[in-house]
Amino acid sequence: MNVGFLGLGSMGSAMATNILNSGNALTVWNRSADKTNALARAGASVAKTPKDLADRDVIFALLANAEATRESIVGSGLLAALPKTATIVNCGTISIALARELTDACAQAGVGYVAAPVLGRPDAAAQAKLNVISAGDPDVVARVQPLLDAIGQKTWHVGTEPAQANTAKIGANFLIASAIGAMGEAFALAEGNGLDPRELFDVVTNTLFAAPAYKNYGAQILEKRFEPAGFQLKLGRKDVGLALAAGESAHANLQLAGALANAFDAAIAAGDGEKDWSAVALQARPKSLSGT
């Protein structure tokens, strides 16, 4: 296929590389042009503006925030210039409201739209081992499935409305943030009462919570491995905010999300915004141990 890719952060670069390596013609665009160099050397073409991708069959988007996503797809003129045979695949973690806005905009333009946010960190993206959460018209999803297979180990189809995939992604990230916050507090509880938190970690990750999220993030917290960031804390705060907004629109009372937002805000105020989001666990440490 002729594929375009908007957004070449650590995740986007890895995903775009896998699409190129799977035999597709690829054109890439990024706001910071220097991030296109590696892919250009690997054989990708480089676009000067998002609109220059209008001759591609499928355009992937993985932008940092709502403003960049809306501007790159709609404000740039890309959507209006696309033929009706084209499809946009948005892999970004965006709000339910923006997902519906983009779905409507693509429908009005006669362009296919699939939401396909991913679960996994940059190392998983580099190995094409992401889990892809997709939603959209089944025929349109089927058309882009070979490309989803190129970036992930499994695609989870969760519905026919694109916003359903974004709902699942927001819920998943909220669960991870909750696990990180809970581990930080449980470890602080243990440490403050004379128990080596590594003993608690060993017990729970081999019994009640024997899952990668607990094992991997728990180890990071205990070893204080917060840099370089696999996923920045300030982006984690954005995702907790998305959960709060989604809950509010559905009249769901997300009290835990509110408490998590406060913890993330305190971590950002402490200067930890660009560290890994597991650094939010530091907010629970007893003050007497905060410097150790």
Which structural traits does this protein have?
292 residues, alpha/beta, Rossmann fold, N-(1-d-carboxylethyl)-l-norvaline Dehydrogenase, domain 2, 2 domains, six-stranded parallel β-sheet, three-stranded mixed β-sheet, 12 helices, 14% strand
SSE blueprint and pairings:
Layout (H helix, E strand, L loop, with lengths): L1 E5 L3 H12 L3 E5 L7 H6 L2 E2 L11 E4 L4 H10 L2 H4 L5 E4 L5 H14 L2 E4 L2 E2 L2 H5 L3 E6 L2 H14 E8 L2 H31 L4 H8 L7 H12 L9 H17 L5 H15 L23
Parallel strand pairs: 1-2, 1-4, 2-3, 4-5, 5-6, 8-9
Antiparallel strand pairs: 7-8
Helix pairs in contact: 5-8, 8-9, 8-10, 8-11, 8-12, 11-12
Question: How would you describe this structure to a colleague?
Answer:
β5 (87-90), α5 and β6 (112-115) form a beta-alpha-beta unit. 51% of the residues lie in helices and 14% in strands. The protein folds into two domains: 2-160, 3-Layer(aba) Sandwich (Rossmann fold); 167-289, Orthogonal Bundle (N-(1-d-carboxylethyl)-l-norvaline Dehydrogenase, domain 2), CATH 1.10.1040.10. α8 (162-192) crosses α9. It is of the alpha/beta class. The termini are far apart. The chain has a six-stranded parallel sheet, with helices on both faces. The chain has a three-stranded mixed sheet with strand order 7-8-9. The model has no long low-confidence stretch (mean pLDDT 96). The protein has twelve helices and nine strands.
